[in-house]
Design goal:
The protein is α+β, with helices and mostly antiparallel strands and 406 residues long. The protein has helices at residues 18-30, 46-61, 93-107, 181-203, 222-237, 256-276, 298-324, 344-356, 362-368, 376-386; strands at residues 2-5, 64-70, 73-77, 109-121, 127-134, 140-145, 148-154, 157-159, 164-168, 211-215, 248-252, 331-334. The longest helix has 27 residues, at 298-324.
Length: 406
């Protein structure tokens, strides 16, 4: 994905991405060595992939519901097909939401071509999108005038802004595109990737000598050193014995300090990456040594993750779907209850409390568990077990709670 301001249209050869600009600056300051970090190469780091997978998995698993306000109450309405199969029959909402969330989290933007429209008129005077075919970030060039996007160029073909689905996050004022967290985190990710490269070179013998063969009796010239090295290498390469006099000392290099530094760099890099991508380190098995996370139960931990990390991204997606995929006054909500699933004991306790407080009817509680309302035979069972005091009045269509387990 590239940003192409109109005032630079004549300088197409100089189009660069934020990541490329960052790496050009790194090369200017520190030389050309090391790992070149981009949104794609960053995926080679396990922590980056774990963060993207976790966030995209959770967001894509949230059911998409559509509502409208009726007399001040939120009433659910039918979900339009574009929020069920946005990419056509081949691409359902979960796959579509996963792909777009990965692009949003790693690059700050996602793009798709609006290939079909419905008969419902949207805020731009055109039919609402009925199908959105996603496109690769690398195929997209954006032309802008100030903060206004004027053209999209996708795979070499120009499109008007209303023909393209564009979501963004990590925005700043005056910039029409979202920002990539990789561009800002590249310094830390680069350090960690370089640590991996150094480790591979170290243990393969490419970064430093694997061992030291030293003559402790005299100083040797270059010719004698070469002869000794070749003789030693010929012997040890086949696992044979190397015979020498008392004047030669062989000492494998023990890189304890370097290995510790490498491990430390990997740990710090992983924690920093988790922070940049909005994932608690413990959720991707990257908790720092000596730290601890305590919470009363799984629901509280998930609630903290939702509020502090995932909630803002969910809210932005709800706003984008509400503005462009449904007609006013309808709006879209991602059902975060799927993330806040409780353990069975906590859920039963909560439902019993709501029934006793008269905020939830027993029939509604049964529906939450995807169970049919009680039958007369089942009420009779409760009568036999608990007595007639729990039986439903004959004239009441909604029976009283048969117990805390309802």
């Amino acid at each position: 994905m590239k940003l192409w301001p109109r005032r630079r249209a004549a300088r197409a050869a100089q189009i660069v991405t934020a990541e490329e600009l960052l790496n050009l600056e790194r090369s200017r300051r520190f030389g050309g060595g090391g790992v070149h970090v981009t949104a794609d190469t960053a995926l080679r780091h396990g922590a980056v992939w774990a963060c993207l997978r976790l966030r995209a998995d959770l967001v894509s698993s949230m059911p998409v519901d559509v509502y409208r306000r009726v007399n001040g109450l939120q009433v659910e309405v039918p979900t339009p097909p574009v929020l069920v199969t946005p990419g056509g029959a081949e691409v359902g909402m979960r796959e579509w939401a996963y792909s777009t969330q990965v692009d949003l989290d790693r690059a700050g933007n996602c793009f798709g071509l609006i290939t079909e429209r419905s008969g419902v008129i949207g805020p731009d005077g055109r039919g609402l999108p009925a199908r959105i075919d996603l496109v690769a970030l690398a195929d997209v060039v954006v032309r802008s005038k100030g903060a206004q996007i004027t053209k999209f160029v996708i795979a070499g073909q120009e499109y008007e802004p209303w023909e393209v689905w564009h979501e963004k996050q990590y925005t700043v004022a005056g910039l029409p595109l979202g920002l990539s967290p990789v561009a800002f985190a590249a310094w830390t990710i680069e350090e960690s990737l370089n640590a991996q490269q150094f480790a591979r070179d170290w243990f393969a013998g490419g970064a430093v000598p694997m061992a030291e063969l030293k003559n402790i009796d005299k100083t040797i010239n270059e010719k004698d050193a070469r002869i000794a090295r070749e003789a030693f290498a010929a012997a040890v390469s086949t696992g044979d014995l190397f015979v020498h006099g008392k004047d030669w000392e062989y000492k494998p290099i023990q890189a304890v300090a370097s290995q510790s530094a490498f491990i430390e760099a990997r740990q710090y890099g992983t924690i920093d990456i988790a922070r940049f991508f909005g994932c608690p380190g413990d959720l991707i098995d990257a908790a720092a040594s000596g730290s601890s996370v305590t919470y009363a139960n799984i629901s509280q931990r998930n609630l903290q993750f939702l509020i502090m990390h995932l909630g803002p991204a969910v809210g932005r997606r709800e706003d984008a779907f509400s503005r462009r995929l449904v007609s006013n006054p309808r709006y879209v909500k991602l059902n975060t209850d799927s993330l806040l699933r409780m353990d069975p004991a906590a859920r039963a306790s909560m439902v019993a409390t709501q029934i006793n407080a008269r905020t939830l009817a027993p029939s509604e509680a049964r529906a939450l568990e995807e169970r049919q309302p009680f039958t007369e035979e089942q009420y009779a069972e409760f009568d036999r077990l608990f007595g007639s005091r729990n039986a439903a009045p004959a004239t009441s269509p909604t029976p009283a709670a048969p117990g805390a387990t309802s």
